Amino acid sequence: MILWHLGATVLIVRYVFRDPDMDLRWVLAGSILPDVIDKPIGSLLFHDTFGTHRLFAHSIVFPMAAFGIALIATKRGTGLRRGLIGLTIGLFVHLLLDAAWATPEAFWWPFFGWEFPKVLDSDLFSLLGRMLSEPLVWAGEAAGAAYIVFLWRRYLAEAGAMRRFVRLDGRVDLPTGS
Ligand SMILES: [Zn+2]
Predict the structure, then answer these.
(1) Which residues contact 106 (CB under 8 A, 6 or more apart)?
(2) Residue 103 has what pLDDT?
(3) C-alpha 148 to ligand 1 mean position (Å)
(4) Which helix (H) or strand (E) holds 17?
(5) How remote is the CA of residue 92 from the centroid of ligand 1, in Å?
(6) Residue 177 pLDDT more than 80?
(7) Å from CA of 29 to ligand 1 middle
(8) How far, in Å, is the centroid of ligand 1 from the Cα of 95?
(9) How many Å lie between the centroid of ligand 1 and the Cα of residue 140?
(10) I want to staple 88 with a disulfide (CB 3.0 to 4.6 A). Which of 67, 72, 114, 157 is the partner?
(11) What value does the CA radius of gyration of the chain take, rounded to a whole number of Å?
């Protein structure tokens, strides 16, 4: 579920933080990063070892580490710090949307031990097959896509606006009057 994560995360972040300067490029990256890391490792490359699609990047330690790095390794007021904090927020929302606490050994890793609980049929092909046959997944993807298209047409359709978003600041105006 990629578009669901991208769309729902941006929606939540825009309405919770209401920060017109939030760099959504980093938020978007954070919103899918846990899956980009864990699924190839746990479901494909090292499935025999781990046997689960939720590893380190689906533990609470991961966004906390990103937040720590943002505070320690970057200077206050810089674009990099703002970006990394945006990334951290994206990571947190990913765990929220995944209901990651439902697999507590992975969520609280490594506090309950170094092992990740194996998940049945978590190899990439079973996982994809299950997702593609699940109407709720398609509904989520459609909702995420619809919100992204809405934002694009509402706020980034002007000439040069998309280029500015991608290359420069990742900003999308907030609704006026909010
Ligand atoms: Zn995930």
Answers:
(1) 52, 54, 55, 58, 59, 100, 116, 117
(2) 85
(3) 19
(4) helix 3-17
(5) 11
(6) no
(7) 13
(8) 7
(9) 14
(10) 67
(11) 17
Q: What is the mean pLDDT of residues 154-164?
A: 95
User: pLDDT for 20-62, tens place per residue?
Assistant: 999 999 999 999 999 999 999 999 999 999 999 999 999 999 9
Q: Residue 172, SS3? A: coil
Give 139-164 as a 3 state SS string.
HHHHHHHHHHHHHHHHHCCCCCHHHH
CB 4 within 8 A of CB 143: yes
Tokens representing residue 176 in the block: 């006026």
Query: Ligand 1 center to residue 116 CA distance, Å?
Result: 15
The 10s digit of each residue's pLDDT in 99-129 is 999 888 899 999 988 989 888 889 999 999 9
Amino acid at 159: A
> Residue 19 C-alpha to ligand 1 middle, in angstroms?
25
The answer to whether 60 and 107 are in contact (CB under 8 A) is: yes
Considering the chain, what is the average pLDDT of its residues? 94
Backbone angles phi, psi at 167, to 5 degrees: -90, -25
- What are the angstrom distances between the C-alpha of 162 and each of 6, 25, 80, 155? 17, 12, 21, 9
Q: Distance, CA 53 to ligand 1 centroid (Å)?
A: 8
Q: How many whole angstroms from 98 Cα to the centroid of ligand 1?
A: 6
pLDDT of residue 178: 53
